[in-house]
Amino acid sequence: MVEFALPRRDAANPDYCTGVDEWHDAIALAWAQAIASVPGARRVALLVWGDPALYDSTLRIAARLQPPPGVRVIPGITAVQALCAAHAIPLNEIGAPFTVTTGRRLREDGFPPGTDTCIVMLDGETSFRSLDPAGLEIWWGAYLGMEAELTECGPLAEAGPRILAARAAAREQHGWIMDIYLLRRRAR
Ligand SMILES: C[S@@+](CC[C@H](N)C(=O)[O-])C[C@H]1O[C@@H](n2cnc3c(N)ncnc32)[C@H](O)[C@@H]1O
């Protein structure tokens, strides 16, 4: 086990993608230094939250190492799957698409067009507050798969305030929180 300080992303960078790109370079450098600190290290294992294919840059960062390493992925359960399982709901409506997006995109672009089901991740700002709740239902989960797991669901107008209260209390209690939610437009 090798510990290293995870570089921080420059959140002040006005260009979000450039900020993330530079951040990934810095993380790759930290990995390279950590690996070099173990004489004779030949294999490295990295744990990720859920699955590295979904809103995770472990594989992008690994590709920046020189020489690029061979990588084997052991798939994990995504937070999307954990959320649907916790509520015992199907992810998509019959034959219909769904969108997975971030809190920032939900705030900036609103409910994604072309779908009635939207999953929101990476949302530290409870961005569902930016939507008109009429006709929307929400299924929310925090600390999914963990002892502290919390869930709430219902019409957004009613469940939204409950989620805000539960989220604030849990964050205060644990000092951190990771949560995800699914929004569905009710059939008209
Ligand atoms: C950097 S992304 C990682 C996603 C992960 N690769 C996956 O497969 O779910 C972090 C976001 O995933 C969601 N997340 C990951 N694990 C979670 C959990 N156990 N409970 C609730 N949300 C979780 C949250 O939306 C969090 O902001």
Automatic annotation (TrEMBL):
<dbReference type="GO" id="GO:0009236">
    <property type="term" value="P:cobalamin biosynthetic process"/>
</dbReference>
<dbReference type="InterPro" id="IPR000878">
    <property type="entry name" value="4pyrrol_Mease"/>
</dbReference>
<keyword id="KW-0169">Cobalamin biosynthesis</keyword>
<keyword id="KW-0489">Methyltransferase</keyword>
<keyword id="KW-0949">S-adenosyl-L-methionine</keyword>
<keyword id="KW-0808">Transferase</keyword>
<dbReference type="InterPro" id="IPR035996">
    <property type="entry name" value="4pyrrol_Methylase_sf"/>
</dbReference>
<comment type="pathway">
    <text>Cofactor biosynthesis; adenosylcobalamin biosynthesis.</text>
</comment>
<dbReference type="InterPro" id="IPR014777">
    <property type="entry name" value="4pyrrole_Mease_sub1"/>
</dbReference>
<dbReference type="InterPro" id="IPR012797">
    <property type="entry name" value="CobF"/>
</dbReference>
<dbReference type="Pfam" id="PF00590">
    <property type="entry name" value="TP_methylase"/>
</dbReference>
<dbReference type="GO" id="GO:0032259">
    <property type="term" value="P:methylation"/>
</dbReference>
<protein>
    <submittedName>
        <fullName>Precorrin 6A synthase</fullName>
    </submittedName>
</protein>
<feature type="domain" description="Tetrapyrrole methylase">
    <location>
        <begin position="31"/>
        <end position="159"/>
    </location>
</feature>
<dbReference type="InterPro" id="IPR014776">
    <property type="entry name" value="4pyrrole_Mease_sub2"/>
</dbReference>
<dbReference type="GO" id="GO:0043819">
    <property type="term" value="F:precorrin-6A synthase (deacetylating) activity"/>
</dbReference>
